Amino acid sequence: MHQLSTKFSSRKSKSNPWFTSTLRAFKSTVRHAENIWKCTHSALDWSSFKSLRNRYHNLILASKKQYYSNLVSSSSDNPRRLWQTVNKLLHRNSSSPLPTCTSASALADSLASFFTDKTSKLHPSLTSSFTPSFPHLPSSPKTPPDFSTFKLASTSEISKILFNCPNKQCDYDPIPTWLLKECSALLVPTITNMVNLSLIR
Predict the structure, then answer these.
(1) What's the distance, CA 76 to chain centroid?
(2) How confident is the model at residue 164, as a pLDDT?
(3) What is the pLDDT of residue 143?
(4) Nearest-5° Cα angle at 18, 12 to 23
(5) For residues 129 and 123, what is the distance between their CA atoms, to the nearest angstrom?
């Protein structure tokens, strides 16, 4: 009964955002009860102090739960901010997946070389271990098209693709998807022209 393992750290408590003014006031009440018990060492004062201490701990747990629940709920409409919040709460350190390079152009060259070498090494192993068979085709299949020419897109095709897209976007998108749909009558002809310019070049 006379062993006390609870410690109160005012410095740590003040740095926690979930530590409310109600908790601060109740903490003073618990400390006052603790000082009374240390002076009297009576069973009644010990019981009073222990009850207040347990209630204080329960209030801390409830305050933490409420604070973190509100923190997650406030980011629920932004997936990127939500993951940043979750990673921060779980103390996850996000390391950069990119290799260290002196410049952006060096990084791009490094990535291009990586995928080029990967393809060069993978292609011989696939061609040597796999012989394709086409039982439903003639013995001498036709040469596949080289895709040197493309059929130009129409505004109706672009509009259909646009309206089939879900209303989702990231922070880097210049315009929300829902707004793009709202302005489709003005923007679809321009978008169609951009697509067709890409196809003929």
Answers:
(1) 11
(2) 92
(3) 74
(4) 80
(5) 10
Determine which helix (DSSP H) or strand (DSSP E) holds 69, and give its type and residue range: helix 43-73
Q: Tell me, what's the pLDDT at 5? A: 45
What one-letter code names the amino acid at 186? L
| Predicted pLDDT at 1 | 47
The pLDDT assigned to 95 comes to 63
CB atoms within 10 A of CB 29: 12
Domain limits, the chain: 10-89, 148-201
Please tell me the distance from the alpha carbon of residue 70 to that of residue 28, in angstroms, as a whole number. 26
| CA neighbor of 55 nearest in space, from 23, 18, 21 | 23
The pLDDT of residue 168 = 83
Classify the phi-psi angles of 63: left when phi > 0, otherwise alpha if psi is within -120 to 50, otherwise beta.
Answer: alpha
Task: Give the containing element (helix H, strand E) for 105.
Answer: helix 104-129
Residue 28's alpha-carbon distances to 52, 56, 180, in angstroms, are 11, 10, 57
CA distance 26 to 76: 32
Stretches in the chain below the pLDDT threshold 50:
1-6, 10-14
- For 153, phi and psi rounded to 5 degrees? -80, 150
Compute the CA torsion angle 193, 197, 198, 201 (nearest 10 deg).
170
- Given this model, what pLDDT does residue 94 score? 62
Cα–Cα distance for residue pair 24/5, rounded to 1 Å: 20
DSSP labels, 186-198: HHHHHHHHHHHHH
